[in-house]
Amino acid sequence: MKQKFFIDTNKAVTGLIVFVMIVIYNQWGNTTAWVYLAVHGTYGFLWVLKSQIFPDKQWEERTSWAYGAVIWLGLSLYWVAPWIITSQSVQDASWYLAICISIYALGVFLHFTSDMQKYTSLKLNPECLITTGLMARTRNINYFGELLIYGSFALLARHWLPAAILMAWVLFIWVPKMLKKDRSLSRYQDFKAYKERTKLFIPFLL
Q1: What is the largest CA-CA distance in the chain?
Q2: Start-to-end Cα distance in the chain
Q3: Environment class of residue 204 by beta-carbon count within 10 Å: exposed (0-12), middle (13-18) or buried (19+)?
Q4: 121: exposed, middle or buried (C-beta count within 10 Å: 0-12, 13-18, 19+)?
């Protein structure tokens, strides 16, 4: 089974999971819970569309059911945020919700457009080093987009645990993948110069 099967199914059911939490904890009047359902639910839907339209090659690799279960359960940790919101009836101010939604929107733009740029560039020229567009100043702008997306989810919960889970993903999953990608791209003659003028992950900082 391909890795993307486990990733896609998890993201596809996220909206349903959040809705069930709203029902169980009787949060029909909780605006924060509905906003969370809207942003995380649409993200899951968009991810599945992306996986079908411009898939990421790394998720096309086959894996065992055991490791697939690890992937699925690991991604399920992101459901801690909506559980906190619904079980503790977290209700954010309107201005705070607006900030979180704006962060989410920017993250979606950076994540999906950079993945599309990578997909189309490699489709047209499989051996190219992508150094333009969204990749011009940050080598992993797609991961930064994801950071904004999941960061907005954590902010909605106003609790340290979703933020800690996100940081664990960044440190133990994302960063190693970025460094592995750098090692792979080092085969290109222009990579050294490209690396010197760009950031690994976060624009202008890291």
Answers
A1: 59
A2: 35
A3: exposed
A4: middle
